[in-house]
Amino acid sequence: MTDIKKTAGEPGTPPAGPEAVKAIPVRHYGRYVSAVIAIAILVAIIYAFAQGQINWGAVPDYFFDDRILTGVGKTLLLTVASMAIGIFGGIVLAVMRLSKNPVTSSIAWFYIWFFRGTPVLVQLVVWFNLGLVFQYINLGPLYKDEWSDFMTPLLTALLGLGLNEAAYMAEICRAGLLAVDEGQTEAAHALGMSHSRTLRRIIIPQAMRVIVPPTGNEVINMLKTTSLVSVVQYPELFRFAQDIGQNSGAPVEMYFLAAAWYLIMTSILSVGQYYVERYYARGSSRSLPPTPWQKVKAHLTTFSSRKVTAA
Amino acid sequence: MTEKLSKKQDSPSQGTVPMVKAEGVHKSFGHVEVLKGIDLEVKPGEVFCLIGPSGSGKSTFLRCINHLEKINAGRLYVDGELVGYRQQGEKLYELRDREVSMKRRDIGMVFQRFNLFPHMTALENVIEAPVQVRGVSRTQARERAMQLLDRVGLADRAGHYPSQLSGGQQQRVAIARALAMDPKLMLFDEPTSALDPELVGDVLDVMRDLAESGMTMVVVTHEMGFAREVGDSLVFMDNGVVVESGHPRDVLTNPQHERTQSFLSKVL
Protein backbone atom coordinates (compact mmCIF):
# COMPACT_ATOMS: atom_id res chain seq x y z
CA MET A 1 0.00 0.00 0.00
CA THR A 2 2.67 2.44 1.01
CA ASP A 3 4.71 1.26 -1.91
CA ILE A 4 2.01 2.29 -4.37
CA LYS A 5 1.67 5.71 -2.82
CA LYS A 6 5.38 6.24 -2.95
CA THR A 7 5.81 5.45 -6.64
CA ALA A 8 2.69 7.38 -7.61
CA GLY A 9 3.68 10.38 -5.62
CA GLU A 10 7.25 10.56 -6.83
CA PRO A 11 7.50 13.72 -8.88
CA GLY A 12 11.15 13.39 -9.84
CA THR A 13 10.84 10.64 -12.47
CA PRO A 14 7.86 10.99 -14.71
CA PRO A 15 7.09 7.75 -16.54
CA ALA A 16 8.26 7.64 -20.13
CA GLY A 17 5.22 5.90 -21.57
CA PRO A 18 1.69 5.64 -20.28
CA GLU A 19 1.68 5.06 -16.56
CA ALA A 20 1.93 1.37 -15.68
CA VAL A 21 -1.11 -0.09 -13.94
CA LYS A 22 -0.39 -0.51 -10.24
CA ALA A 23 -3.14 -2.36 -8.48
CA ILE A 24 -3.46 -4.61 -5.47
CA PRO A 25 -3.73 -8.14 -6.85
CA VAL A 26 -6.71 -10.31 -6.00
CA ARG A 27 -5.92 -12.51 -3.01
CA HIS A 28 -6.65 -16.14 -3.75
CA TYR A 29 -7.22 -17.41 -0.24
CA GLY A 30 -8.34 -20.79 -1.56
CA ARG A 31 -4.88 -21.32 -2.98
CA TYR A 32 -3.17 -20.69 0.34
CA VAL A 33 -5.49 -23.11 2.08
CA SER A 34 -5.02 -25.88 -0.50
CA ALA A 35 -1.25 -25.39 -0.46
CA VAL A 36 -1.17 -25.74 3.31
CA ILE A 37 -3.29 -28.90 3.16
CA ALA A 38 -1.12 -30.42 0.43
CA ILE A 39 2.07 -29.73 2.38
CA ALA A 40 0.56 -31.16 5.54
CA ILE A 41 -0.39 -34.40 3.76
CA LEU A 42 3.09 -34.64 2.25
CA VAL A 43 4.75 -34.16 5.62
CA ALA A 44 2.47 -36.78 7.15
CA ILE A 45 3.40 -39.32 4.48
CA ILE A 46 7.12 -38.66 4.82
CA TYR A 47 6.82 -38.89 8.59
CA ALA A 48 4.96 -42.20 8.31
CA PHE A 49 7.68 -43.66 6.13
CA ALA A 50 10.43 -42.37 8.36
CA GLN A 51 8.74 -43.88 11.44
CA GLY A 52 7.86 -47.18 9.75
CA GLN A 53 9.56 -50.48 10.36
CA ILE A 54 11.95 -49.92 7.50
CA ASN A 55 15.66 -50.25 7.84
CA TRP A 56 16.66 -47.34 5.63
CA GLY A 57 20.30 -48.02 6.28
CA ALA A 58 20.10 -51.12 4.08
CA VAL A 59 19.36 -49.05 0.99
CA PRO A 60 22.72 -47.25 0.73
CA ASP A 61 24.50 -50.45 1.80
CA TYR A 62 23.33 -52.25 -1.29
CA PHE A 63 22.86 -49.28 -3.63
CA PHE A 64 26.04 -49.96 -5.56
CA ASP A 65 26.15 -53.68 -4.92
CA ASP A 66 27.63 -55.62 -7.83
CA ARG A 67 24.42 -57.55 -8.40
CA ILE A 68 22.37 -54.37 -8.44
CA LEU A 69 24.72 -52.76 -10.95
CA THR A 70 24.60 -55.89 -13.13
CA GLY A 71 20.82 -55.72 -12.88
CA VAL A 72 20.81 -52.07 -13.93
CA GLY A 73 23.01 -52.94 -16.90
CA LYS A 74 20.74 -55.79 -17.95
CA THR A 75 17.64 -53.66 -17.56
CA LEU A 76 19.19 -51.01 -19.80
CA LEU A 77 20.28 -53.64 -22.32
CA LEU A 78 16.76 -55.09 -22.44
CA THR A 79 15.23 -51.65 -22.80
CA VAL A 80 17.52 -50.59 -25.64
CA ALA A 81 17.36 -53.89 -27.51
CA SER A 82 13.59 -54.34 -27.22
CA MET A 83 12.98 -50.72 -28.21
CA ALA A 84 15.23 -51.22 -31.22
CA ILE A 85 13.17 -54.24 -32.25
CA GLY A 86 10.00 -52.30 -31.48
CA ILE A 87 10.92 -49.20 -33.47
CA PHE A 88 12.18 -51.13 -36.48
CA GLY A 89 9.16 -53.43 -36.44
CA GLY A 90 6.88 -50.48 -35.88
CA ILE A 91 8.15 -48.60 -38.92
CA VAL A 92 7.80 -51.70 -41.09
CA LEU A 93 4.30 -52.36 -39.80
CA ALA A 94 3.26 -48.72 -40.23
CA VAL A 95 4.44 -48.67 -43.84
CA MET A 96 2.69 -52.02 -44.38
CA ARG A 97 -0.54 -50.71 -42.95
CA LEU A 98 -0.41 -47.61 -45.13
CA SER A 99 0.47 -49.58 -48.25
CA LYS A 100 -2.06 -49.92 -51.03
CA ASN A 101 -1.55 -53.67 -51.09
CA PRO A 102 -4.55 -55.13 -49.21
CA VAL A 103 -2.66 -58.27 -48.18
CA THR A 104 0.22 -56.50 -46.44
CA SER A 105 -2.03 -53.93 -44.85
CA SER A 106 -4.36 -56.55 -43.40
CA ILE A 107 -1.46 -58.65 -42.12
CA ALA A 108 -0.16 -55.55 -40.34
CA TRP A 109 -3.63 -54.87 -39.00
CA PHE A 110 -3.89 -58.41 -37.68
CA TYR A 111 -0.47 -58.25 -36.05
CA ILE A 112 -1.33 -55.03 -34.27
CA TRP A 113 -4.72 -56.37 -33.25
CA PHE A 114 -3.17 -59.46 -31.70
CA PHE A 115 -0.14 -57.97 -29.95
CA ARG A 116 -1.97 -54.96 -28.63
CA GLY A 117 -4.89 -57.02 -27.52
CA THR A 118 -3.04 -59.42 -25.21
CA PRO A 119 -1.05 -58.56 -22.07
CA VAL A 120 2.74 -58.54 -22.33
CA LEU A 121 3.03 -60.79 -19.33
CA VAL A 122 0.91 -63.42 -21.06
CA GLN A 123 2.92 -63.03 -24.26
CA LEU A 124 6.18 -63.50 -22.36
CA VAL A 125 4.97 -66.69 -20.76
CA VAL A 126 3.71 -67.98 -24.10
CA TRP A 127 7.09 -67.33 -25.72
CA PHE A 128 8.72 -69.08 -22.80
CA ASN A 129 6.58 -72.17 -23.26
CA LEU A 130 6.64 -72.41 -27.02
CA GLY A 131 8.85 -75.46 -26.58
CA LEU A 132 5.61 -77.39 -26.23
CA VAL A 133 4.75 -76.49 -29.83
CA PHE A 134 8.16 -76.61 -31.43
CA GLN A 135 10.57 -79.25 -30.22
CA TYR A 136 13.36 -78.34 -32.55
CA ILE A 137 14.35 -75.31 -34.47
CA ASN A 138 15.69 -76.17 -37.88
CA LEU A 139 16.83 -73.44 -40.24
CA GLY A 140 18.27 -75.87 -42.77
CA PRO A 141 22.04 -75.72 -42.95
CA LEU A 142 22.24 -72.48 -40.96
CA TYR A 143 21.08 -73.50 -37.55
CA LYS A 144 19.58 -76.49 -35.84
CA ASP A 145 18.98 -76.99 -32.16
CA GLU A 146 16.51 -78.00 -29.56
CA TRP A 147 13.96 -75.29 -28.94
CA SER A 148 14.74 -74.99 -25.26
CA ASP A 149 18.41 -74.40 -26.02
CA PHE A 150 17.61 -71.89 -28.73
CA MET A 151 15.03 -69.94 -26.75
CA THR A 152 17.23 -68.58 -24.00
CA PRO A 153 15.67 -66.35 -21.35
CA LEU A 154 17.29 -63.33 -23.00
CA LEU A 155 15.83 -64.13 -26.40
CA THR A 156 12.45 -64.85 -24.89
CA ALA A 157 12.50 -61.54 -23.08
CA LEU A 158 13.61 -59.63 -26.18
CA LEU A 159 11.03 -61.22 -28.43
CA GLY A 160 8.26 -60.85 -25.90
CA LEU A 161 8.95 -57.19 -25.20
CA GLY A 162 10.10 -56.19 -28.70
CA LEU A 163 7.28 -57.76 -30.69
CA ASN A 164 4.72 -56.33 -28.33
CA GLU A 165 6.32 -52.93 -28.58
CA ALA A 166 6.31 -53.09 -32.38
CA ALA A 167 2.52 -53.10 -32.33
CA TYR A 168 2.41 -49.89 -30.32
CA MET A 169 5.19 -48.24 -32.29
CA ALA A 170 3.37 -49.09 -35.51
CA GLU A 171 0.40 -46.99 -34.46
CA ILE A 172 2.67 -44.15 -33.34
CA CYS A 173 4.60 -44.18 -36.62
CA ARG A 174 1.42 -44.39 -38.65
CA ALA A 175 0.01 -41.35 -36.87
CA GLY A 176 3.27 -39.51 -37.55
CA LEU A 177 3.32 -40.35 -41.25
CA LEU A 178 -0.33 -39.33 -41.63
CA ALA A 179 0.31 -36.04 -39.85
CA VAL A 180 2.56 -34.76 -42.64
CA ASP A 181 0.72 -32.55 -45.09
CA GLU A 182 -0.05 -34.18 -48.42
CA GLY A 183 1.30 -31.11 -50.19
CA GLN A 184 4.78 -32.20 -49.06
CA THR A 185 4.49 -35.45 -50.96
CA GLU A 186 3.18 -33.61 -54.01
CA ALA A 187 5.96 -31.06 -53.91
CA ALA A 188 8.59 -33.79 -53.62
CA HIS A 189 7.01 -35.81 -56.42
CA ALA A 190 6.76 -32.72 -58.60
CA LEU A 191 10.52 -32.26 -58.17
CA GLY A 192 11.02 -35.76 -59.53
CA MET A 193 11.75 -37.49 -56.22
CA SER A 194 10.84 -41.17 -56.04
CA HIS A 195 8.45 -42.66 -53.49
CA SER A 196 11.14 -44.01 -51.21
CA ARG A 197 13.28 -40.91 -51.42
CA THR A 198 10.27 -38.74 -50.61
CA LEU A 199 9.54 -40.92 -47.61
CA ARG A 200 13.14 -40.83 -46.40
CA ARG A 201 14.07 -37.22 -47.05
CA ILE A 202 10.78 -35.36 -46.70
CA ILE A 203 8.09 -37.32 -44.89
CA ILE A 204 9.93 -39.20 -42.13
CA PRO A 205 11.95 -36.20 -40.87
CA GLN A 206 8.70 -34.28 -40.47
CA ALA A 207 6.85 -37.26 -39.03
CA MET A 208 9.55 -37.54 -36.37
CA ARG A 209 8.20 -34.43 -34.68
CA VAL A 210 4.98 -36.29 -34.03
CA ILE A 211 6.65 -39.65 -33.41
CA VAL A 212 9.34 -38.67 -30.89
CA PRO A 213 7.29 -37.55 -27.87
CA PRO A 214 5.15 -40.70 -27.63
CA THR A 215 8.22 -42.82 -28.41
CA GLY A 216 9.99 -41.27 -25.44
CA ASN A 217 6.99 -42.30 -23.41
CA GLU A 218 7.29 -45.81 -24.78
CA VAL A 219 10.98 -46.00 -23.85
CA ILE A 220 10.20 -45.04 -20.28
CA ASN A 221 7.34 -47.51 -20.22
CA MET A 222 9.60 -50.20 -21.62
CA LEU A 223 12.23 -49.57 -18.96
CA LYS A 224 9.62 -50.29 -16.31
CA THR A 225 8.03 -53.18 -18.19
CA THR A 226 11.37 -55.00 -18.24
CA SER A 227 10.71 -55.81 -14.59
CA LEU A 228 8.18 -58.39 -15.86
CA VAL A 229 10.78 -60.57 -17.52
CA SER A 230 11.67 -62.21 -14.23
CA VAL A 231 8.85 -64.63 -15.12
CA VAL A 232 10.94 -65.98 -18.00
CA GLN A 233 13.95 -66.45 -15.70
CA TYR A 234 15.92 -63.52 -17.05
CA PRO A 235 17.53 -61.70 -14.14
CA GLU A 236 17.48 -57.92 -14.24
CA LEU A 237 17.33 -55.11 -11.71
CA PHE A 238 14.05 -56.07 -10.10
CA ARG A 239 14.94 -59.75 -9.88
CA PHE A 240 18.34 -59.07 -8.35
CA ALA A 241 16.82 -56.64 -5.85
CA GLN A 242 14.30 -59.31 -4.90
CA ASP A 243 17.04 -61.91 -4.47
CA ILE A 244 19.13 -59.67 -2.29
CA GLY A 245 16.07 -58.80 -0.27
CA GLN A 246 15.33 -62.41 0.45
CA ASN A 247 18.90 -63.23 1.44
CA SER A 248 19.65 -60.14 3.46
CA GLY A 249 16.37 -60.00 5.32
CA ALA A 250 15.49 -56.58 4.03
CA PRO A 251 13.01 -57.33 1.21
CA VAL A 252 10.96 -54.13 1.34
CA GLU A 253 14.08 -51.99 1.52
CA MET A 254 15.34 -53.58 -1.67
CA TYR A 255 12.09 -52.73 -3.43
CA PHE A 256 12.68 -49.11 -2.49
CA LEU A 257 16.20 -49.42 -3.78
CA ALA A 258 14.95 -50.78 -7.11
CA ALA A 259 12.36 -48.01 -7.29
CA ALA A 260 15.10 -45.42 -6.77
CA TRP A 261 17.17 -46.92 -9.58
CA TYR A 262 14.20 -46.99 -11.94
CA LEU A 263 13.52 -43.36 -11.11
CA ILE A 264 17.11 -42.38 -11.79
CA MET A 265 17.08 -44.13 -15.15
CA THR A 266 13.72 -42.73 -16.27
CA SER A 267 14.83 -39.23 -15.24
CA ILE A 268 17.94 -39.49 -17.39
CA LEU A 269 15.82 -40.74 -20.29
CA SER A 270 13.44 -37.79 -19.95
CA VAL A 271 16.32 -35.38 -20.29
CA GLY A 272 17.49 -37.17 -23.42
CA GLN A 273 13.97 -37.07 -24.82
CA TYR A 274 13.82 -33.31 -24.32
CA TYR A 275 16.88 -32.77 -26.49
CA VAL A 276 15.77 -35.18 -29.21
CA GLU A 277 12.42 -33.39 -29.40
CA ARG A 278 14.19 -30.08 -29.62
CA TYR A 279 16.28 -31.36 -32.51
CA TYR A 280 13.25 -32.40 -34.52
CA ALA A 281 11.40 -29.17 -33.77
CA ARG A 282 13.79 -27.44 -36.18
CA GLY A 283 11.86 -25.21 -38.55
CA SER A 284 8.49 -25.96 -37.01
CA SER A 285 8.51 -22.97 -34.74
CA ARG A 286 10.13 -19.64 -35.36
CA SER A 287 12.66 -20.08 -32.60
CA LEU A 288 13.60 -23.16 -30.63
CA PRO A 289 12.60 -23.23 -26.97
CA PRO A 290 15.59 -22.57 -24.71
CA THR A 291 17.34 -25.53 -23.12
CA PRO A 292 16.99 -25.74 -19.34
CA TRP A 293 20.57 -24.55 -19.02
CA GLN A 294 19.81 -21.49 -21.15
CA LYS A 295 16.73 -20.87 -19.02
CA VAL A 296 18.78 -21.05 -15.85
CA LYS A 297 21.30 -18.61 -17.28
CA ALA A 298 18.54 -16.24 -18.36
CA HIS A 299 16.97 -16.40 -14.92
CA LEU A 300 20.30 -15.75 -13.26
CA THR A 301 20.88 -12.64 -15.32
CA THR A 302 17.38 -11.24 -14.72
CA PHE A 303 17.71 -12.06 -11.05
CA SER A 304 21.00 -10.24 -10.73
CA SER A 305 19.75 -7.23 -12.68
CA ARG A 306 16.70 -7.08 -10.43
CA LYS A 307 18.99 -7.03 -7.43
CA VAL A 308 20.97 -4.21 -8.92
CA THR A 309 17.91 -2.05 -9.47
CA ALA A 310 16.64 -2.84 -6.00
CA ALA A 311 19.90 -1.73 -4.49
CA MET B 1 13.53 -8.99 -73.47
CA THR B 2 14.93 -8.91 -76.98
CA GLU B 3 15.90 -12.51 -76.62
CA LYS B 4 12.33 -13.42 -75.83
CA LEU B 5 10.92 -11.44 -78.74
CA SER B 6 13.26 -12.97 -81.25
CA LYS B 7 12.55 -16.39 -79.81
CA LYS B 8 8.84 -15.85 -80.19
CA GLN B 9 9.10 -14.65 -83.74
CA ASP B 10 11.16 -17.49 -85.08
CA SER B 11 9.12 -20.21 -83.44
CA PRO B 12 6.18 -20.63 -85.77
CA SER B 13 3.72 -23.23 -84.64
CA GLN B 14 3.96 -25.57 -87.60
CA GLY B 15 7.65 -26.46 -87.21
CA THR B 16 8.07 -26.96 -83.47
CA VAL B 17 6.65 -29.57 -81.17
CA PRO B 18 4.18 -28.00 -78.72
CA MET B 19 5.40 -28.03 -75.14
CA VAL B 20 2.02 -29.17 -73.89
CA LYS B 21 -0.70 -30.66 -76.03
CA ALA B 22 -4.05 -31.82 -74.74
CA GLU B 23 -6.50 -33.81 -76.83
CA GLY B 24 -9.91 -34.42 -75.32
CA VAL B 25 -8.61 -34.72 -71.75
CA HIS B 26 -11.22 -36.02 -69.31
CA LYS B 27 -10.84 -36.38 -65.56
CA SER B 28 -13.34 -37.46 -62.95
CA PHE B 29 -13.13 -37.80 -59.20
CA GLY B 30 -15.58 -40.59 -58.48
CA HIS B 31 -18.79 -39.59 -60.18
CA VAL B 32 -17.86 -35.95 -60.53
CA GLU B 33 -16.50 -35.11 -63.93
CA VAL B 34 -14.04 -32.27 -63.48
CA LEU B 35 -12.54 -32.07 -66.95
CA LYS B 36 -14.89 -32.74 -69.86
CA GLY B 37 -12.66 -32.82 -72.86
CA ILE B 38 -9.90 -30.23 -72.87
CA ASP B 39 -8.08 -29.46 -76.11
CA LEU B 40 -5.25 -26.98 -76.08
CA GLU B 41 -1.67 -26.38 -77.09
CA VAL B 42 1.12 -24.54 -75.34
CA LYS B 43 3.98 -23.48 -77.58
CA PRO B 44 7.58 -23.45 -76.35
CA GLY B 45 8.58 -20.15 -74.78
CA GLU B 46 5.00 -19.15 -74.28
CA VAL B 47 3.29 -17.83 -71.16
CA PHE B 48 -0.02 -19.60 -71.13
CA CYS B 49 -2.66 -18.37 -68.68
CA LEU B 50 -5.60 -20.39 -67.43
CA ILE B 51 -8.39 -18.41 -65.86
CA GLY B 52 -11.87 -19.25 -64.71
CA PRO B 53 -14.09 -19.54 -61.65
CA SER B 54 -13.08 -21.88 -58.85
CA GLY B 55 -14.12 -25.45 -59.50
CA SER B 56 -13.78 -24.97 -63.24
CA GLY B 57 -11.02 -27.59 -63.39
CA LYS B 58 -8.04 -25.38 -64.19
CA SER B 59 -5.92 -26.55 -61.25
CA THR B 60 -6.85 -30.15 -61.94
CA PHE B 61 -5.76 -29.77 -65.53
CA LEU B 62 -2.45 -28.27 -64.41
CA ARG B 63 -1.88 -31.21 -62.07
CA CYS B 64 -2.58 -33.63 -64.91
CA ILE B 65 0.31 -32.13 -66.87
CA ASN B 66 2.90 -33.55 -64.47
CA HIS B 67 0.79 -36.60 -63.69
CA LEU B 68 -0.09 -35.70 -60.13
CA GLU B 69 -3.57 -36.64 -61.34
CA LYS B 70 -4.25 -39.47 -63.77
CA ILE B 71 -6.48 -38.59 -66.69
CA ASN B 72 -9.43 -40.85 -67.50
CA ALA B 73 -9.66 -40.23 -71.22
CA GLY B 74 -7.92 -38.38 -73.99
CA ARG B 75 -4.24 -37.80 -74.58
CA LEU B 76 -1.87 -35.40 -72.92
CA TYR B 77 1.61 -34.75 -74.31
CA VAL B 78 4.52 -32.81 -72.85
CA ASP B 79 7.25 -31.96 -75.34
CA GLY B 80 5.88 -34.57 -77.70
CA GLU B 81 5.84 -37.38 -75.17
CA LEU B 82 2.76 -38.93 -73.64
CA VAL B 83 2.25 -38.08 -69.95
CA GLY B 84 2.19 -41.08 -67.61
CA TYR B 85 1.97 -43.73 -70.34
CA ARG B 86 3.96 -45.31 -73.08
CA GLN B 87 2.32 -46.18 -76.34
CA GLN B 88 3.38 -49.25 -78.23
CA GLY B 89 1.28 -49.81 -81.30
CA GLU B 90 -2.32 -49.57 -80.20
CA LYS B 91 -1.68 -50.39 -76.58
CA LEU B 92 -0.98 -48.00 -73.72
CA TYR B 93 1.33 -49.06 -70.93
CA GLU B 94 1.29 -47.27 -67.61
CA LEU B 95 4.73 -45.91 -66.69
CA ARG B 96 6.46 -47.12 -63.56
CA ASP B 97 6.82 -44.67 -60.68
CA ARG B 98 10.48 -44.29 -61.48
CA GLU B 99 9.78 -43.39 -65.10
CA VAL B 100 7.14 -40.87 -64.05
CA SER B 101 9.65 -39.29 -61.67
CA MET B 102 12.18 -39.05 -64.51
CA LYS B 103 9.73 -37.01 -66.56
CA ARG B 104 8.73 -34.79 -63.68
CA ARG B 105 12.32 -33.65 -63.27
CA ASP B 106 11.91 -31.44 -66.29
CA ILE B 107 8.64 -29.88 -65.16
CA GLY B 108 8.77 -27.36 -62.35
CA MET B 109 5.69 -26.77 -60.27
CA VAL B 110 4.75 -23.94 -57.94
CA PHE B 111 1.85 -24.50 -55.57
CA GLN B 112 -0.76 -22.22 -54.14
CA ARG B 113 0.29 -23.15 -50.61
CA PHE B 114 4.04 -23.06 -51.41
CA ASN B 115 4.67 -26.53 -49.95
CA LEU B 116 8.22 -25.71 -48.97
CA PHE B 117 9.87 -28.39 -46.85
CA PRO B 118 9.53 -26.90 -43.36
CA HIS B 119 12.42 -28.84 -41.82
CA MET B 120 14.94 -27.38 -44.27
CA THR B 121 16.27 -23.87 -44.67
CA ALA B 122 15.53 -21.92 -47.85
CA LEU B 123 18.91 -22.94 -49.25
CA GLU B 124 18.42 -26.60 -48.36
CA ASN B 125 15.00 -26.52 -49.99
CA VAL B 126 16.56 -25.35 -53.22
CA ILE B 127 19.49 -27.79 -53.29
CA GLU B 128 17.49 -30.83 -52.15
CA ALA B 129 16.22 -32.01 -55.54
CA PRO B 130 19.35 -31.28 -57.61
CA VAL B 131 21.49 -33.20 -55.10
CA GLN B 132 19.07 -36.05 -54.43
CA VAL B 133 17.55 -36.48 -57.87
CA ARG B 134 20.05 -35.17 -60.38
CA GLY B 135 23.12 -36.17 -58.38
CA VAL B 136 24.69 -32.73 -58.58
CA SER B 137 27.51 -32.20 -56.08
CA ARG B 138 26.60 -30.30 -52.94
CA THR B 139 28.98 -27.42 -53.57
CA GLN B 140 27.82 -27.00 -57.14
CA ALA B 141 24.17 -27.14 -56.13
CA ARG B 142 24.81 -24.62 -53.37
CA GLU B 143 26.44 -22.20 -55.77
CA ARG B 144 23.58 -22.48 -58.22
CA ALA B 145 21.02 -22.21 -55.41
CA MET B 146 22.57 -18.98 -54.21
CA GLN B 147 22.34 -17.59 -57.73
CA LEU B 148 18.68 -18.54 -57.90
CA LEU B 149 17.90 -17.13 -54.47
CA ASP B 150 19.64 -13.97 -55.54
CA ARG B 151 17.53 -13.89 -58.67
CA VAL B 152 14.32 -14.02 -56.62
CA GLY B 153 15.77 -11.40 -54.28
CA LEU B 154 16.27 -13.64 -51.25
CA ALA B 155 20.01 -14.30 -51.11
CA ASP B 156 20.09 -12.85 -47.59
CA ARG B 157 17.38 -15.26 -46.44
CA ALA B 158 19.18 -18.45 -47.48
CA GLY B 159 19.62 -19.66 -43.90
CA HIS B 160 16.03 -19.03 -42.82
CA TYR B 161 13.47 -21.75 -42.30
CA PRO B 162 10.17 -21.36 -44.17
CA SER B 163 8.35 -20.53 -40.94
CA GLN B 164 10.63 -17.51 -40.59
CA LEU B 165 9.71 -16.17 -44.03
CA SER B 166 6.65 -14.26 -45.19
CA GLY B 167 4.26 -15.87 -47.65
CA GLY B 168 5.65 -13.92 -50.56
CA GLN B 169 9.20 -14.88 -49.63
CA GLN B 170 8.20 -18.53 -49.27
CA GLN B 171 6.62 -18.51 -52.69
CA ARG B 172 9.74 -16.99 -54.22
CA VAL B 173 11.88 -19.66 -52.56
CA ALA B 174 9.45 -22.23 -54.01
CA ILE B 175 10.02 -20.76 -57.47
CA ALA B 176 13.79 -20.92 -56.96
CA ARG B 177 13.41 -24.53 -55.80
CA ALA B 178 11.56 -25.44 -58.99
CA LEU B 179 14.06 -23.59 -61.17
CA ALA B 180 16.99 -25.42 -59.57
CA MET B 181 16.01 -28.49 -61.59
CA ASP B 182 16.42 -26.52 -64.84
CA PRO B 183 12.92 -27.34 -66.03
CA LYS B 184 11.80 -26.84 -69.59
CA LEU B 185 8.28 -26.10 -68.41
CA MET B 186 6.99 -24.35 -65.31
CA LEU B 187 3.52 -24.88 -63.89
CA PHE B 188 2.06 -22.26 -61.56
CA ASP B 189 -1.01 -23.24 -59.57
CA GLU B 190 -2.53 -19.97 -58.37
CA PRO B 191 0.85 -18.85 -57.03
CA THR B 192 -0.43 -15.61 -55.51
CA SER B 193 -3.84 -16.67 -54.20
CA ALA B 194 -2.63 -17.40 -50.68
CA LEU B 195 -0.69 -14.14 -50.36
CA ASP B 196 -1.44 -10.81 -48.76
CA PRO B 197 -2.20 -8.29 -51.51
CA GLU B 198 0.95 -6.29 -50.86
CA LEU B 199 3.16 -9.37 -51.27
CA VAL B 200 1.66 -10.40 -54.61
CA GLY B 201 3.75 -7.90 -56.55
CA ASP B 202 7.11 -9.42 -55.57
CA VAL B 203 6.06 -12.85 -56.74
CA LEU B 204 4.62 -11.53 -60.00
CA ASP B 205 7.86 -9.62 -60.63
CA VAL B 206 9.81 -12.86 -60.34
CA MET B 207 7.39 -14.58 -62.71
CA ARG B 208 7.61 -11.70 -65.18
CA ASP B 209 11.40 -11.91 -65.10
CA LEU B 210 11.14 -15.64 -65.71
CA ALA B 211 8.80 -15.09 -68.66
CA GLU B 212 11.21 -12.61 -70.18
CA SER B 213 14.00 -15.15 -70.01
CA GLY B 214 11.98 -17.34 -72.37
CA MET B 215 10.65 -19.98 -69.95
CA THR B 216 7.55 -21.85 -71.04
CA MET B 217 4.98 -21.24 -68.33
CA VAL B 218 1.45 -22.48 -67.71
CA VAL B 219 -0.11 -20.22 -65.13
CA VAL B 220 -3.42 -20.74 -63.36
CA THR B 221 -4.17 -17.32 -61.99
CA HIS B 222 -6.70 -14.76 -60.89
CA GLU B 223 -4.29 -11.92 -61.61
CA MET B 224 -5.85 -10.47 -64.76
CA GLY B 225 -3.30 -7.68 -64.90
CA PHE B 226 -0.46 -10.19 -65.02
CA ALA B 227 -2.26 -12.26 -67.67
CA ARG B 228 -2.78 -9.22 -69.84
CA GLU B 229 0.77 -7.88 -69.56
CA VAL B 230 2.83 -11.04 -69.56
CA GLY B 231 0.60 -13.71 -71.09
CA ASP B 232 0.93 -14.83 -74.69
CA SER B 233 -2.17 -16.99 -74.71
CA LEU B 234 -5.13 -17.22 -72.42
CA VAL B 235 -7.83 -19.79 -71.91
CA PHE B 236 -11.03 -19.23 -70.01
CA MET B 237 -12.33 -22.45 -68.48
CA ASP B 238 -15.68 -23.10 -66.90
CA ASN B 239 -17.27 -26.30 -65.71
CA GLY B 240 -14.53 -28.52 -67.12
CA VAL B 241 -14.45 -27.15 -70.64
CA VAL B 242 -12.53 -24.46 -72.48
CA VAL B 243 -15.05 -21.70 -73.12
CA GLU B 244 -12.87 -19.19 -74.87
CA SER B 245 -9.24 -18.82 -75.83
CA GLY B 246 -7.01 -16.38 -77.59
CA HIS B 247 -4.57 -13.58 -76.90
CA PRO B 248 -5.03 -12.26 -73.36
CA ARG B 249 -5.63 -8.72 -74.55
CA ASP B 250 -8.41 -9.80 -76.87
CA VAL B 251 -10.13 -12.17 -74.48
CA LEU B 252 -9.87 -9.87 -71.47
CA THR B 253 -10.93 -6.67 -73.19
CA ASN B 254 -13.35 -8.06 -75.69
CA PRO B 255 -14.74 -11.39 -74.49
CA GLN B 256 -17.00 -13.06 -77.03
CA HIS B 257 -18.73 -15.61 -74.87
CA GLU B 258 -21.45 -14.64 -72.45
CA ARG B 259 -19.98 -16.76 -69.63
CA THR B 260 -16.59 -15.09 -70.05
CA GLN B 261 -18.19 -11.68 -70.00
CA SER B 262 -20.04 -12.31 -66.75
CA PHE B 263 -16.93 -13.80 -65.09
CA LEU B 264 -14.71 -10.91 -66.14
CA SER B 265 -17.26 -8.32 -65.10
CA LYS B 266 -17.06 -9.73 -61.58
CA VAL B 267 -13.29 -10.04 -61.46
CA LEU B 268 -12.02 -6.92 -63.18
Descriptive key words:
heterodimer, A: mainly alpha, MetI-like fold, 2 strands, flat, disordered N terminus, disordered C terminus, B: 268 residues, alpha/beta, six-stranded mixed sheet, ATP binding (chain B), ATPase-coupled polar amino acid-transporter activity (chain B), ABC-type polar-amino-acid transporter (chain B)
Which secondary structure elements does this structure contain, and how are they paired or packed?
The complex is a heterodimer of chains A (311) and B (268).
Chain A: H1 2-9, H2 29-51, H3 58-63, H4 66-98, H5 102-117, H6 120-128, E1 136-138, E2 144-146, H7 147-150, H8 153-179, H9 182-190, H10 195-225, H11 237-248, H12 251-280, H13 292-310
Chain B: H1 2-9, E1 20-29, E2 32-42, E3 47-51, H2 58-65, E4 73-78, E5 81-82, E6 85-88, E7 91-94, H3 97-104, E8 107-110, H4 122-134, H5 138-151, H6 167-179, E9 185-189, H7 197-212, E10 216-220, H8 224-230, E11 233-238, E12 241-246, H9 248-253, H10 258-267
Helix pairs in contact in B: 4-5, 4-6, 5-6, 6-7
Give structural notes.
Chain B: Residues 20-264 form the ABC transporter domain. Chain B: It catalyses: a polar amino acid(out) + ATP + H2O = a polar amino acid(in) + ADP + phosphate + H(+). The complex is a heterodimer of chains A (311) and B (268). In chain A, α8 crosses α10. Chain A has 311 residues and is mainly α. Chain A has a two-stranded antiparallel sheet. Chain A contains 13 helices and two strands, in the order ααααααββααααααα. In chain A, β1 (136-138) and β2 form a beta hairpin. Chain A has helices at residues 2-9, 29-51, 58-63, 66-98, 102-117, 120-128, 147-150, 153-179, 182-190, 195-225, 237-248, 251-280, 292-310, and strands at residues 136-138, 144-146. The longest helix of chain A is centred in the N-terminal third of the chain and has 33 residues, at 66-98. The radius of gyration of chain A is 28 Å and the shape is flat. Chain A has one domain: MetI-like (MetI-like fold), CATH 1.10.3720.10. Chain B is an alpha/beta fold and 268 residues long. Chain B contains ten helices and twelve strands. Chain B has helices spanning 2-9, 58-65, 97-104, 122-134, 138-151, 167-179, 197-212, 224-230, 248-253, 258-267, and strands at residues 20-29, 32-42, 47-51, 73-78, 81-82, 85-88, 91-94, 107-110, 185-189, 216-220, 233-238, 241-246. A six-stranded mixed beta sheet of chain B has the order 8-9-10-3-11-12, sandwiched between helices. A four-stranded antiparallel beta sheet of chain B has the order 2-1-4-5, with helices on one face. In chain B, strands 6-7 form a two-stranded antiparallel ribbon. The longest helix of chain B has 16 residues, at 197-212. Chain B is globular. In chain B, 46% of the residues are buried. The model of chain B is unreliable at 1-13 (pLDDT under 50). The A-B interface holds A 181, 183-184, 186-195, 197, 201-202, 205-206, 280, 282-286 and B 66, 68, 97-98, 101-109, 111, 113, 115-121, 128-129, 132-133, 161-164, 174, 177-178, 181.
